[in-house]
Amino acid sequence: MRAYYYDDEPTDQRLPHDSGEPVSLDTLAHLGVLYWTIPVAEGESIPEGVDAIAKQRGYKNRDVINVSKEGLGDAYESKIKGFFEEHMHEDEEIRYILGGSGFFDVRKHAPAPNQERWIRIFCAPGDLIVLPSGIYHRFTLDTNNKIKAARLFQQDEPKWIPHNRGPATDSNPYRAEYVATIQPVSVA
Ligand SMILES: CSCCC(=O)/C(O)=C/O
Ligand SMILES: [Fe+2]
């Protein structure tokens, strides 16, 4: 995992867009983003270290998603577009990367929208990331064009309904609760 501020250049979303300003794990934790690394070999099943965290955090169920042309078929273009719309969920988004790589972008909340910045998080096999309920975020593949991830969830059936950013979502109670739990940070 590597996190840094996004450079906001209007080029291919799958490029690194690295501004050169790194972001620390402390800053991510302050935003409610949690991260672990639990090594996994290509083709291996989900390691026990993931089970331990799942038990600790009450994630009872899981499935696996292959985000690639082969994995998503006819839904590929619309899914890729949807993942990169700025959105939030009412549930945590928990992903353990089994293969490939990609970028999760999370919005660093600030008092005024024009002070907000995107933080880009590069994820590769062995990375386990938790995005809290209510955080604005988006996802894109990198130029390898594929990622395989386990999606962990607490409920019997996952929801992961994306609520795209807008006035209605800004006043969603889960969003309001998220904003209330964090204070703006100035550290890197
Ligand atoms: C790497 S999993 C695909 C991305 C996803 O599931 C999601 O909800 C992005 O916000
Ligand atoms: Fe999401």
UniProtKB/TrEMBL annotation:
Co-factor binding comment: Binds either 1 Fe or Ni cation per monomer. Iron-binding promotes an acireductone dioxygenase reaction producing 2-keto-4-methylthiobutyrate, while nickel-binding promotes an acireductone dioxygenase reaction producing 3-(methylsulfanyl)propanoate.
Compartmental location: Cytoplasm; Nucleus
Family: Belongs to the acireductone dioxygenase (ARD) family.
Residue positions binding Ni(2+): 87, 89, 93, 137
GO cellular component annotations of the record: cytoplasm; nucleus
Pathway participation: Amino-acid biosynthesis; L-methionine biosynthesis via salvage pathway; L-methionine from S-methyl-5-thio-alpha-D-ribose 1-phosphate: step 5/6
Binding site for Fe(2+): 87, 89, 93, 137
Pfam families recorded: ARD
Source organism: Calocera cornea HHB12733
GO molecular function per UniProt: acireductone dioxygenase (Ni2+-requiring) activity; acireductone dioxygenase [iron(II)-requiring] activity; iron ion binding; nickel cation binding
Organism superkingdom: Eukaryota
An example Gene Ontology biological process: L-methionine salvage from methylthioadenosine
Catalyzed reactions: 1,2-dihydroxy-5-(methylsulfanyl)pent-1-en-3-one + O2 = 4-methylsulfanyl-2-oxobutanoate + formate + 2 H(+); 1,2-dihydroxy-5-(methylsulfanyl)pent-1-en-3-one + O2 = 3-(methylsulfanyl)propanoate + CO + formate + 2 H(+)
InterPro entries for this protein: ARD, ARD_euk, RmlC-like_jellyroll, RmlC_Cupin_sf
Name listed for the protein in its UniProt record: Acireductone dioxygenase
PANTHER family noted in UniProt: ACIREDUCTONE DIOXYGENASE (PTHR23418)
Residues covered by region (Disordered): 1-20
